[in-house]
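Let us practice reading a record.
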Amino acid sequence: METIHDELIAKPIESTKPFPLRAPMRLVQTAVTLSILADWLFYDKPLGVSLLLFVVLVVGGLWWNGRHEAIPAAKHNLWLLLPLGFFASMAMLRTNSTLTTLNVLAVLCLLAYLAFFYAAGRVENLNLLGYALLPLRVLGHSLALSVPVIGPTVQEMKQSGNGRRRLLPLLRGLALALPVLLVFTYLLSSADLIFADYVADLFSLDIFDHVAEWIWRGMLIVLLSVLLAGGLALALTRRAEDEEQSVLERGLAQLPGHLAIGFIETTTILVLVNMLFAAFVGIQFTYLFGGAANVTEAGYTFADYARRGFFELLTVAILTMLLVLGLNWLARRENKGQIRLFNGLGSVLVGLVLVMLVSAWRRMALYEAAFGYTELRLIVYVCMAWLAVILVWFWLTLWLRPDRFAIGALLAVMGFVATLNLINPDAFIARQNLDRYGRSGDLDVAYLANLSDDAVPQLVRGLNLAVGDAEKQLTPACADAWMMDYEEVDCYATPYEIIWEALNGRYQSLTTDTTWQRWTSFNVARWQAWGALGFLAES
């Protein structure tokens, strides 16, 4: 026989009955504590081990509240903790800004998935739209659930009077302690000049200069507390399996019956697109894959032909996959023969797109050979590799399990970000471009000098390579299109001078601003850069 509590838990979160948590105050206290810790860990501090620590605290707080509420975690969804821990830990290994942004976004999305599927449902049951919308849905649910969580907590505090009973004695204690502290502070300051200096510095602070900052930080803490309280409540109260689909998804699920496309129309679209792609692929085999001679005979330079098209081909690959997915969703197939024909035409299309990806890869390789690596070019390389994986997975699921495509695509996106982390983009770019410099003597020093601390060990190596190079290049400042009055500055220097100036400036910056040395901002790459730069300065 179900208890009243079990019945409440089984209801959707939109229920008008009392909120199905035994101790909402405990959850609110957890949220406020986590928010204060977040302010201490992140506010005006470089990101480092703090992100991993905060993730551990959030997951620990969720588990602790679930244990007290007798709400166990769904074990089949706990695999989310592995990528969550990986991306959070990368914040203390890499300093590249793009990579850090991707890692933070990955952490936030995975926390949203974990909150939604902590106690019910299966992550792999969502579709592509569901994965994209879920973080926004969790945000909306968190805001909506914060009211029924915080409301009972405030009401309980009013009824119990514990707040007043604890606050009033505390205020009286502070009032009594103040004159005692003033007397002892005066005596200790008179006894020790160093202590007196610390006291003078403390009381010389202009409190009013910090009032605005304190108000802002307080508002951030309150907002984060509201979101965390609602998010924790969502994780512990969501039970209904039909809640896995959003209102938008349920509405779209009813559209195919009204917007379905006939099989002849679908086949016509696929056949024509296949013919177009086949013609394009034929040209690729004749010219791009055939070698530079065929391109030059057609009146083009090989470099101009190679540098164009890879972004367009990436777009074509993505749009093609969306086209087949859309047709698979909308097309009417009345028998097995029609299903096989559709899958066959879709498979041919995927195969042609894979050839296009190979073409785009070759174009990018030729472009990189001519001009070297950049962050964008490296990201394109990794993106193409994982897009090929998604296309192969799409081909498999098209024939076997179409409903499993979305989870594979999600894992591929995680794999894309994980691959960038493992490659270490800035260190890779610096190493490859310096190796190319040793072979060809060609190097974009201005770009290299602006890479993050991840590249510092390689830049130190670059000093040795550039010692004998007397050819002057634009300095990083003058290479910036936003800089003005070039004539007033010596804009040209040797590669050695540019690298040395960049490393010296970085060392001075790390020496002046030591916030990165706090343990909460611990970052392996930053400390390695500091060690390499310190050794360089001493030598």
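A brief commentary: The first helix runs from residue 4 to 10.
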